[in-house]
Write a structure and sequence with these properties.
The chain has 149 residues and is an alpha+beta fold. The chain has helices at 38-41, 60-70, 90-109, 122-144, and strands at 3-4, 11-14, 17-20, 24-29, 45-51, 79-84. The longest helix has 23 residues, at 122-144. The protein starts with a strand and ends in a 5-residue tail after the last helix.
Length: 149
């Protein structure tokens, strides 16, 4: 299929977390897109795989958020797959894939604020009902003078 990358980072620091490089698997595959004849000879695209579900580097809540945020990029087994083939060289594609992984993790680190249910003020309720009454009256007047004889 492709060659497995030997140059995986030993550690990856993201927003206060340190991810062990052993948890990141890289595979180089042939790329589509720019590259001329080179594209048929050299495996420049990078397929980065990160097992979100079994990662020891991420807290449980971050793992769950990352799986939910990444959506289709996560397999049924909980592996995040990022394919980078934007550039002509392995190294730039590799860096692009790592940057995208770090961005996904950065987004998953943000704890969403819980929504606190609110109620409309008495004045807002009063104004809404008054506007409905005015509109109903206007429409009722139109019906009265429609001229059906």
């Amino acid at each position: 299929m492709g060659e497995v990358g030997a140059g995986s980072p030993s550690r990856l620091a993201v927003g206060g977390l340190v991810i062990d490089g052993a948890e990141i698997e890289e595979r180089f595959v042939r790329s589509g897109g720019p590259g001329g004849q080179n594209v048929n000879k050299v495996a420049t695209a990078v397929q980065l795989r990160f097992d979100v579900r079994h990662s020891q580097s991420l807290p449980v809540d971050v793992r769950a958020r990352l799986e939910r945020l990444a959506g289709r990029l996560v397999t049924r087994e909980g592996v995040l797959v990022i394919t980078a083939q934007r550039f002509r060289t392995q190294e730039r594609n590799r860096q692009d894939a790592l940057d995208r992984l770090m961005e996904w993790i950065r987004r998953a680190l943000i704890v969403p604020r819980s929504r606190r249910p609110t109620r409309p003020s008495a004045a807002a309720v009063r104004n809404r009902l008054e506007a409905k009454r005015r509109r109903a009256t206007l429409k009722a007047r139109r019906r009265e003078g429609s001229g059906e004889e």
